Amino acid sequence: MPQTSLSHRLPQQAPAAVITARNVVKTYGDFNAVDGISFDVQPGESFGLLGPNGAGKSTTMRMIGGVSQRTSGELSIMGLDPDQHGPEVRAHLGVVPQQDNLDEELKVRDNLIVYGRYFGLPYSYLRPKADELLEFAQLTDKAKAKVDALSGGMKRRLTIARSLMNDPKVLLLDEPTTGLDPQARHILWDRLFRLKEAGVTLILTTHYMDEAEQLCDRLIVVDKGKIMAEGSPSALIREHSTREVLELRFGSERNTTVAPELGGIGERLETLPDRILIYADDGEAALEQVSNRGLRPITSLVRRSSLEDVFLRLTGRSLID
């Protein structure tokens, strides 16, 4: 009879979570910016906080980074409490803030080397590391340029490269592509995919639904400091929306008056100031029903459901107010 190895007989232990939050609260006076949120982030995961501006995403990131103390609750980063062990936690974190804070007076390569010195790293390590990261960020030909000569997308890539100088295990990205044009966003997404493939744990905040769907293995939907839902993008869409959405525009003044005439079409209807949304598994069939009722929208569009629809369903409002 063949012997069964011990590793096969014993249950496999799951790796410890990189980040554990339990009932975390952050209060400013009478205002709860973060109101009792709980979540775990696993090693190598790309984890997102999706929500509108003011939802508590950036506040959560600052607490994880140990630069803002929580009011109550438990928070552990790689087994350490960031309030008690801030320097040790930050030594293993890379941070990409919402606004680039590069040194405009320094050249591109010098920004990386000077930042690395804050961690006490030797020049013998920093010089080749800076060159490696400039290549990663597609900025090798800009190494000797002044930062203020870079485009917005280049500055964002440089900020990410700088955050990697200490070879972090976890990278925090706060609204990483805000203000970038579509091409720059896609280049940045590609760089982040490469980091994930290399095993870096990514934590990002965003109010862009397409960004969350592209980058996140799992996410929490946050509104007014509370978690509204948690799961993978595809699972959240399946749970809270239909396969397709029919968007109709009858004109701003007519949308609310036409909406009652659309009753019974699809599974659900949302009337927004600029359009009416009909949620249905078959958007074209829903559009045919609209036409059969003698209704003629100015424009119509059938699209797949997105995280925007999930947020609308959970909160009754759009991600971008």
Pick out its properties.
alpha/beta, Rossmann fold, Alpha-Beta Plaits, six-stranded mixed β-sheet, 34% helix, 25% strand, globular, ATP binding, ABC_transporter_ATP-binding, transport, ABC_transporter-like_ATP-bd
Structure, described:
By secondary structure, this protein is α/β, with parallel strands linked by helices. It has 12 helices and 13 strands. The protein has helices at residues 6-9, 57-64, 86-91, 108-117, 123-136, 152-163, 182-197, 209-215, 233-240, 255-258, 283-292, 307-315; strands spanning 19-28, 31-41, 46-50, 72-77, 93-96, 170-174, 201-206, 218-223, 226-231, 244-249, 268-271, 276-280, 299-304. The strands form 3 sheets. The protein has a 6-stranded mixed β-sheet, sandwiched between helices. α4 (108-117) packs parallel to α6. The model has no long low-confidence stretch (mean pLDDT 90). Residues 19-249 form the ABC transporter domain. GO terms for molecular function: ATP binding. This is ATP-binding cassette domain-containing protein.
Concise overview:
GO terms for molecular function: ATP binding. It contains twelve helices and 13 strands.
CATH topology of the largest domain: Rossmann fold
Distance between the termini: 67 Å
How many helical stretches?
12
- The whole-number mean of residue pLDDT values reads 90
**Computed structural class:** alpha/beta
CATH superfamily descriptor of the largest domain: P-loop containing nucleotide triphosphate hydrolases
Q: What proportion of the residues form beta strands (DSSP E)?
A: 15-25%
Q: Which CATH class of the largest domain?
A: Alpha Beta
- Low-pLDDT sequence parts: none
Please state the oligomeric state of the protein chains shown.
single chain
How many structural domains are formed by the residues?
2
